[in-house]
Amino acid sequence: xxxxxxxxxxxxxxxxxxxxxxxxxxxxxxxxxxxxxxxxxxxxxxxxxxxxxxxxxxxxxxxxxxxxxxxxxxxxxxxxxxxxxxxxxxxxxxxxxxxxxxxxxxxxxxxxxxxxxxxxxxxxxxxxxxxxxxxxxxxxxxxxxxxxxxxxxxxxxxxxxxxxxxxxxxxxxxxxxxxxxxxxxxxxxxxxxxxxxxxxxxxxxxxxxxxxxxxxxxxxxxxxxxxxxxxxxxxxxxxxxxxxxxxxxxxxxxxxxxxxxxxxxxxxxxxxxxxxxxxxxxxxxxxxxxxxxxxxxxxxxxxxxxxxxxxxxxxxxxxxxxxxxx
Length: 326
Hints:
Strand content: 25-35%
CATH architecture of the largest domain: Roll
Shape: globular
Helix content: 25-40%
Number of helices: 10
Number of strands: 14
Strand order of the largest sheet: 2-1-5-6-9
CATH superfamily of the largest domain: Electron Transport, Fmn-binding Protein, Chain A
Largest sheet: 5 strands, antiparallel
Distance between the termini: 49 Å
CATH topology of the largest domain: Pnp Oxidase, Chain A
Radius of gyration: 24 Å
CATH class of the largest domain: Mainly Beta
Order of helices and strands: HHEEEEEEEHHEEHHEHHEEEHHE
């Protein structure tokens, strides 16, 4: 398989990455051929990337010229000793990136400019705290008229996810083991990205679940509603006093959050912990769907949680409960 195809991201994933990154990089040239490279705040509006600029300046001189927009996200740095304990070789980096090729175009209509500026503000100030931005509002009309807004179509959008797909399954397994041992920020999330990109990657024993389920080292926002379903279906008394919003915020803020998925990818078990990494860790919300109880899922999940990098460094791990003591 050619690497261009092997590493290619789906368009939806590339758009999600482009929308999420805090800044983008613009590369173009001035009319006299001088290179221009700038880091900008931007947002997506109507299948285009938009950013603002001074009405007179270097960026405005590049209107109508070909350009490249790029953005990237580092997933994990992989040192040479993950793959070979003795022989030095160039280290590598797992990453995801996007590029947009096109032409810079001005946005002139006041309403379109206001929408673009509002989208940029919503991305970088999601908490709000301001009056809605409208071109006909006296609060904003002068500012909207006095600032330039530039767009580039997203028709030519390419995404690349280099997550070890080109390596052998054995090498990817060694990388996963190395990430789990190291346990640096983002390492457990990187494990799940590798597994998703290359499902044939062998797993260490600790990451293997009982027959019929696979263990997940790092659950994320997409699993919040499923975890809430597990809790509400279980009707456990320790969660009855908490609202749905409090429950999901607690999970999203956990130091470690692991789970078990059935063959269809549905969450059937979940457990989380908060930890200071040195003195104490607390285990919370160990939940197993009723159909999967007494099948070793809860035990496998607890072993995984206790070995999690955020938990295993704590001298004392505590769990308070009135049932399922064993």
